[in-house]
Amino acid sequence: MLRITVWNENFHEKHLPGMKERHPEGLHGTIAAILRQEEDFVVRTATQDDPECGLTEEVLNDTDVLFWWGHVTHNDVPDSVVERVHNHVLQGMGLVVLHSGHFSKIFRKVCGTPCNLTWHDDSKERLFVVNPGHPIAQGLPPYFEIPNEECYGEPFGIPEPDELVFLGWYNTGEVFRSGCCFHRCNGRIFYFQPGHETDSSFFIPEVQQIYKNAARWCAPVKRVPELTCPFQPPLEKVD
Questions:
Q1: Rounded distance, CA 128 to CA 46, Å?
Q2: pLDDT at 239
């Protein structure tokens, strides 16, 4: 079984009109429901309103892949929680960062860069699969379209991705590296750009397939419980 935690700052649900109609259980509930379509996924949710943001050592020890959705309260996440999540990623926990999570503390920490970009209001987006052999691209057509999505544009202030899976083009002229993979020590990270809170991206079958594929790809290959620098005696005796 793959153990997944879906995290959401849970701000728009309380302040943005129409969110209850679009996402009755919150954005975290919508994303969790998509992932629960897979029989071997065990999915829990956590929000910034929970004690320690719902990301205690106990929760993270019981999480194979963490999905992260944030937008306007990035700086309200305590540094201690970010450090805890970062340590678990280095040990092998997978991390999937969605949409405005590009500016979250945890994504900037794993990238080591500002993760800045340009943006404007909704455009039609055409998402191209530029790495069709990648596991996250499995089951997808060569491209698909999202009728309305907040436009993100280059330059995107991230390190060169280890693998680029999706490239987005907007009918307003911009392009964007919309699906990027990174490796940090034992952990795998996937950033996926679609997912604005007022748009329909969450309900597009191809987007849902990407969520599921990303969870499987980010799942730990090896979970190292502690990162240390131990003394290692020589393997061979040298005269």
A1: 32
A2: 78
